[in-house]
Specification:
Layout (H helix, E strand, L loop, with lengths): L1 H33 L2 E2 L8 E2 L3 H7 L2 H32 L6 H9 L6 H11 L6 H8 L15 H25 L4 H9 L4 H12 L1 H17 L1 H7 L11 H11 L3 H25 L8
Antiparallel strand pairs: 1-2
Helix pairs in contact: 3-7, 3-10, 4-7, 5-11, 10-13, 12-13
């Protein structure tokens, strides 16, 4: 009986496993090998140098600068994005008029190309003809900031664009989770005299906990990337003040022809994302609520 079962299962699993090995496991293993080589591209064969590239990372100031910028996004993006998305989701599930229109409006930036969003906001942030500075001058600010040209404001400016684009996605995710919470729980709490804040904190949050954890992992992964929006808006400038790990590995590999070193940065980024995801899952683990 068991032999007959496996005779049926194995043929169905063979091709998916073959595709997985070909397009996932092999590229990962190849990247691991390239990260331990000195390779300038197709013109020469990779020269195996062991962990030299990773040792070099430890004393690379540009690497630590990029990592620090990613750390800023790791704090900024999840905190602000999830807070705004939760607020909008809660408001739009309270029977607000035209809620469907608001949902579509807030979600619309998510379907736009990241490059298009970057170009659009580059014009908004333009120091002389940009909409933002024009409004600031209109309300009396004589010397508005050069948002993308000032090391003190560039990370906040780029991070704000990312939040603007993705907050609608997380809002819809939370709305779907909130609409699955039984109304009987809110009715019972209201009878007991609970305020809306208490109902939100003690009923809504626990019941949508899995959606919150999923959103947190997604936004943390996005915060470790930030390649497309940074490359479009600032190219890592000014003076590397907005450079992140993904743009740095791009510069090293494709502009500097240091593919081994660039791959070492990518491998480091991969393990960083893996570690962050595991920590989040471990820290946020709790028993599943049933109703």
């Amino acid at each position: 009986m068991y032999r007959n079962k496996y005779r049926i299962i194995v043929p169905f699993l063979f091709f998916p496993l073959l595709l997985y090995v070909t397009f996932v496991l092999y590229p990962y293993s190849r990247a691991m090998y390239i990260s331990m080589t000195r390779w300038r591209g197709l013109a020469m064969a990779p020269e195996f140098i062991g962990l030299a590239n990773f040792v070099k990372l430890l004393s690379d100031d540009h690497f630590w600068n990029a990592l620090g910028n990613n750390a800023v996004y790791l704090v900024m993006l999840p905190t602000i994005t999830i807070a705004i998305a939760l607020f909008f989701a809660f408001i739009l599930t309270q029977g607000v008029r035209f809620s469907k229109f608001y949902r579509i409006s807030y979600f619309f930036p998510q379907v736009m190309s990241v490059v298009a969003v970057g170009v659009l906001w580059s014009f908004v942030y333009h120091p002389t003809i940009g909409l933002l500075n024009s409004v600031l001058k209109f309300v009396g600010v004589s010397e508005p900031p050069v948002w993308l040209g000032n090391p003190n404001t560039v990370l906040g400016a780029v991070g704000t664009v990312t939040i603007w684009q993705v907050v609608g996605f997380y809002m819809i995710l939370f709305i779907a989770a909130m609409e699955g919470v039984p109304t009987s729980l809110y009715e019972a709490a209201e009878i007991d005299g609970a305020s809306r804040w208490h109902m939100f904190w003690h009923i809504t949050i626990p019941m949508i906990w899995e959606a919150l954890v999923t959103a947190l992992i997604f936004i943390m992964i996005a915060a470790t990337n930030m390649f497309a929006i940074t490359q479009t808006m600032t190219l890592g400038g000014p003076s590397r003040s907005s450079e992140v790990l993904s743009t740095y590995l791009y510069d090293e590999a494709f502009l500097g022809s240091k593919f081994g070193y660039g791959t070492a940065i990518a491998v480091s980024l991969f393990f960083m994302v893996l570690f962050i995801s595991l920590v989040i899952q471990r820290v946020t683990r709790r028993d599943t609520l049933e109703y």
